[in-house]
Structures are given as structure tokens and as C-alpha cells.
Amino acid sequence: MLKPKRKIASKELKKDPFLESIYSIKQHFDEKKPQYLKIGLSVVVVFLIGFLYNSNSVTNENEADYGLSIGMVYLNQGDYQNAIMQFQQIVDEYSNTNSGYDASFYIGKIHFERGNYDLALPHFERYVSGSNNNFILSSAFESLSSIYQDKNNLDDAISYQKKSINKSISELGNAYSKLRLAKLYILNNNKEKAIKVMDEVIKDHKDNFDIKKEYDFLYGLMDTIS
Question: In this structure, which topology does domain 30-126 adopt according to CATH?
Fold first, then answer.
């Protein structure tokens, strides 16, 4: 005959290590439930904010890219007034996007090519302060160097020309940037540095006729400057 099963008291259940752990966890959760709910809600809110921010950033980038492309159409058509207005709108509305910085460069480029160096200067300076596009950065730094040379500020012209060299992405472009730096050294009465840079260039491009021609011109320029 089967013996009746003995009922297990709750006190005995608590003596079981595993069950006791489960009970402790449940009790802890019940006590801390409001805090955990607050933490969970905070995590959800942070996630949603991050998601919305990223979505908004992508939307801004896309809108800025589209606006920039319109400005480029005006620029390629030679409609500089509308190009500047379009680029400026991108700068005003999407200043911290990649296209926002590119728009600053193109405004500067238009003014620079029309000889309005003072108008071009702040746009180039803004561009180099926030862009990471080395292809355009090299051109922007070179333009800044030319502007400061025109202002007879050769120290700043040299500084920006060095930065242009560092951002140059082509071997030939790098060579011409170095020769321009050598010219600035010559104009600044630092022939020793000029010769060092020139010799570095000609060593790597001795078979390039145009490089050799510029090299010879700079040596002739040194003879005319006391």
C-alpha cells in the first residue's frame, strides 16, 4: 500500500539552496521593481533619441547633398549669383554636414576666381576648419596660401602651403605644391629651404619636362632676389 506523500512546508522549501536563491531574487526584484522600471524606461528613451538623431542626420545629409547638386548646376552654367545663393542656403540650413562645408568651399572658390580674395577668405577658413575631404582640402589650403601671399603675409602663406602638400592625394600634385612652397621660400628670402625642396622634387621627377621647366624658373628667380 502506498504511503501518502508528505506535504512540504514553505519553510522547508526555503531551506533548499536553489529555491532559496530563486526566492531571494524574486524578493529583490519585487523590492526594486520601481527602480528597474525607471532604468528600463531610461534605456528605451536614450535609444529612441539616438535613433531619431541618426535618422535626422541622414535626412539632413541627403537634403544638403541635393541642395549642393543644384548649386553645382548653377556653377557649371556660369550662373555665379544663383550658385552663391544656393550654396549659402546650404551653409545656413545644414552647416555641419559634409555638403554644408563643401558649399563653403565653392562660395570661396567663386569669389577667389573672380579676384575677390577678402570675400573668399572666410569661406575657405570655415571649410578647412571642419572638412575631412583631402582632395578639396589641398585646393582650399593652396587658395588660402595664395590669398595670404597677395596680402604679403608670407609666413601664413608658407604655413598653408605646407598643409596643402600634406593633403595632396596625387604624386604630381604633390610635386607642384612643393615647387610653390619653394617659390614662397624664395620670396621670403629663405633660399636654403627653397633649394632643399626643389632638389627633392627634381630627384623624383627629373624626366618630367614641365617640372624641370618650373625648377629652372625658380633657380632663375633666386638670382633676381637679393
Answer: 1.25.40
